[in-house]
Amino acid sequence: MTNRQRMGLKICLYYMHKEMRMRLFTYLLLSCLLTAITATAGKKLRVLFIGNSYTSVNNLPQILANIANASGDTVIWEMETPGGMTLKEHFESNPATISKIMKGGWDYVVLQDQSQTPALPNDFVATGFFPFVRKLDSVIDKYNPCAQTIMYMTWGRKFSDNQLCQQYTINFNWPHYCSYTAMDSVLHLRYMMAADSIKAAVSPVGAVWRYIRKNHAGIELYDTDESHPSPAGSYAGALSFYTSMFRKDPTLTSTYNYTLNTTDATNIRTAAKKVAFDSMLHWHIGQYELASDFTYSNAGPFFTFTNKSVNATSYNWYFGDGNTSALQNPIHSYTVMGDKTVMLVATNATTNCKDTSYGKVFVPTSVESANHAKVAIDIYPNPTTGLLYISNRTNEKIKSIQVYSMQGKLVQTYSNPSGVIDMRHLSSATYMVRVQTASGLSYYHTINML
Q1: Is 169 exposed, middle or buried (0-12, 13-18, 19+ CB in 10 A)?
Q2: In the CATH scheme, what is the homologous superfamily, with its name and number, of domain 44-279?
């Protein structure tokens, strides 16, 4: 449970104690638990960045790791980013790049070319850009069969690239270095084409920059050379990568502002959401990769897990209490309160790749123990051989009694029960019994069937 969730629960408990009658205690406590105990899973990723100074300036990978950490996720990274290096040079003349790819175990490998190269005329990129995207991707696939390649879409120069504007306009009738918009548009197209050619995702950093330039002109994205990123520019890039890799809304998950003021950081997070998160399929984010993910909610000790994994064929859940499940969307009943770490391993049978996500859940004290002394509905004897007697010390009419297995499966419902229920037809096991009243209150009991 996060600090915000714990605070919400404390506020609920405060007002119950101060203003509400005891007969409403159970209902309000359950409501607080239902609203406070919900979460998404955290993930741990290993990422290799291959590029140049557009990555290394301001240490973009570390900014990404800090954003992830503030959001409950983890990034372990390495980079190979000599200044000005092209992907062609990475493949042909930089053994360190191939060596790092061959280490294996990467979840993502990021490819970023020299800032001007992908904007060259068609004949140049046909021999100097696209082939080396494919060659590097082939090495990535060979040594990292479960990794996803991500193309790092860069941006146009702040105003223009005057030297290349003159050179390529005069010699090749190619004016696309002569303005920010022209250069940025070509880079956008070429990185999308490269991603399509190898079935890769795109981290749309350049597109996020364009949105910020249009809507928040006061945020300076460029260093003084009008090419490299400023701290704000690198922060925007890191948020784009966070969205591309974790597929989470950066406005909801991250509170890390790097070195920026709160207003600028908030506006950049909003830009990353609008451009990257809101259009993930456009950037092929999650389209090709296996990814494990889940959310959950609970009512008392009953936890409902919703599987958000993609491109998986089978699932293995580990609930942190020794119990497991292979169901896609299991319901699990906990018997001991406290923090539990839930793990979901998603598998793709075609590639034999696996991906794992984790989530911390908080199992509250059962509703029964919170109100038993004052307004208890008791069920006895416990353990039992099958006949259970109901002791109702409230003015509440019992509407139903539901019996669940400890895996969360409903095995029996008794409607409008009288003073006794018969469970003798059930197997010897431990069951969770939920008593519901006509007013909507619930009482939970763990019953051992002999």
Answers
A1: middle
A2: SGNH hydrolase (3.40.50.1110)
Residue 332: CA atoms inside 13 Å, Cβ hemisphere, count? 26
**AA letter at 51:** G
Helices (H), 288-429: 367-375
Q: What is the assigned CATH class of domain 292-364?
A: mainly beta
If you write DSSP's letter for every residue of 65-90 in order, what string do you get?
HHHHHHTT-EEEEEEE--TT--HHHH
Under a CB-based contact definition with an 8 Å cutoff, are residues 302 and 364 in contact? no
Average pLDDT over residues 184-208: 98
Q: Dig out the tokens for 152 from the structure.
A: 């790092």
Q: What is the pLDDT of residues 274-319, one digit of tens each?
A: 999 999 999 999 888 888 989 988 877 788 899 999 889 999 999 9
Kindly report which listed range (143-147, 318-322, 370-374) carries the lowest average pLDDT score. 370-374
Q: How many helices (H) and strands (E) does the chain have?
A: 15, 20
Whole-number Å distance between alpha carbons of 265 and 36: 27
CA distance 160 to 158: 6
For residue 108, what pLDDT is reported?
Answer: 97
Per DSSP, 261 falls in state: -
Domain with residues 367-448, CATH architecture: Sandwich (2.60)
Average pLDDT over residues 156-171: 95
Q: Where are the domains of the chain?
A: 1-36, 44-279, 292-364, 367-448
Burial label for 162, CB within 10 Å (0-12, 13-18, 19+), is: exposed
For residues 237 and 271, the answer to whether their CB atoms sit within 8 Å is no
The answer to whether the 44-279 and 292-364 domains have the same CATH topology is: no
> What are the Cα distances from residue 351, in Å, to 79, 117, 143, 272?
27, 34, 14, 31
Distance, CA of 340 to CA of 361 (rounded, Å): 5
Structure tokens at 14: 């405060």
**CA–CA distance, 450 with 106 (Å, rounded to integer):** 51
Which structure tokens are listed for 195?
Answer: 């991603």
Q: For 426-437, how does the pLDDT look when each residue is reduced to its tens digit (9 = 90+)?
A: 999 888 888 888
pTM of the model: 0.70
Report d(CA 328, CA 350) in Å as an integer.
18
According to DSSP, the residues that pair with 362 across neighbouring strands are: 339
Residue type, 364: P
Three-state DSSP class for 411?
strand
